[in-house]
Amino acid sequence: MFRAPKGTYDLVSPRAEAILAVREAMAEPLRRAGFGYIETPSFEETQLFVRGVGESTDVVTKEMYTFTTRGGDDVTLRPEGTAPVLRAALENGLHRGALPVKLWYSGSYYRYERPQKGRYRHFSQVGAEVLGTEDPASDAELIVLAADAYRELGLENVRIVINSLGSDESRPAYRAALQEFLGTLELDEDTARRAELNPLRVLDDKRPEIQAALADAPVITEFLSAGDRAHHDVVRTRLADAGLDFEDDPRLVRGLDYYTRTLFEFVHDGLGAQSAVGGGGRYDGLSELIGGPRLPAVGWALGVDRTLLAMEAEGLPLPGKTGVDVYAVPLGDEAARTLFGVVSQLRRAGVRADIAVGGRGLKGAMKAADRSGARHAVVLGERDLAEGVAQVKDLQTGEQESVALDQVFKRLTT
Ligand code: AMP
Predict the structure, then answer these.
(1) Residue-level pLDDT at 201
(2) Which fold has domain 14-169+225-314?
(3) Does the Cβ of 123 fall within 6 Å of ligand 1?
């Protein structure tokens, strides 16, 4: 027997419907805020991610599904959505129209990670990007919209953690100070190399001994330029105005290199090690990194799989509707023909309806009706047909009534 590849899993009902409902709940606040939908291919030229995400990141060095096509092209299954969406926006000239461009998307992403609960090699995100503005109000808007999505799903324990990584005005001085500090520590070879290449990465090292050694490391907050500080202050004020609680974490860094200024993460403490249910930030330099014009932007990606796990951790019922409202039980060919018409008509009128097939007997078909979750069963036997009626049974109360065949539709739609 074949099995799903390592680090992947199948979604079957009712969790499959729940995933759809989670995606929908994440998209709804974005639609309400005027975001347009965008879809890009599942794979891109490898260099897009190498340049965009950053050569020294774990994503690029260890986690990409990269291959050469039969035609000799070097492509990579997308490990994230921001670089592809920005590439698509530039290619389609969206940046030459009215700014900002507000886009949302939903899809599968691929990272060759060590699988564990909440961390998969194939996972699902809903993302949002605001392209073409430096206004900190857009950073705050995105954070509020994500918080709205989590709230609408009923989640109560999502924490918002924010930081500023500064811009080119602040980062070089901080980088140098951090590098100097890291130089005083006894680091293993790998970590020492990372400290050379990309010292901010070291802050993201989760090993307790490294975290302990970093206790006295300089924090970015002390190095922010006046402009970077003013930007960050507006973001914080807007969040407070919107009534959102958030925490400042001057050590927050994320696994992608393109972030500038605002950085944020949505954390759920019921998930164990993989506690981030979403995250994002500002990436004012990314467009230029991938060969485009200057196009300041901000965005986030919310993890759909982990958000569903968070809902389960909070004991929330699975979202998303399964089953039907009406289940038709025909006994005999003629009845099957008649009820086929009734069920089609009900569906067209927006009623969720199903019908027993395969000439099932009454007992088996009524079991299926119960399993379907339907409130009403419509039973049509030969005697009913002769009398021009059907039996409409309320599956909750057990009450049953004879309804004239031409009144069944009306009875079930009013
Ligand atoms: P990132 O693109 O790394 O900023 O991730 C954004 C969100 O996607 C994270 O907060 C997670 O919720 C989710 N995510 C990232 N990687 C994985 C993964 N390997 N498996 C499941 N969810 C993931």
Answers:
(1) 85
(2) BirA Bifunctional Protein; domain 2 (3.30.930)
(3) yes
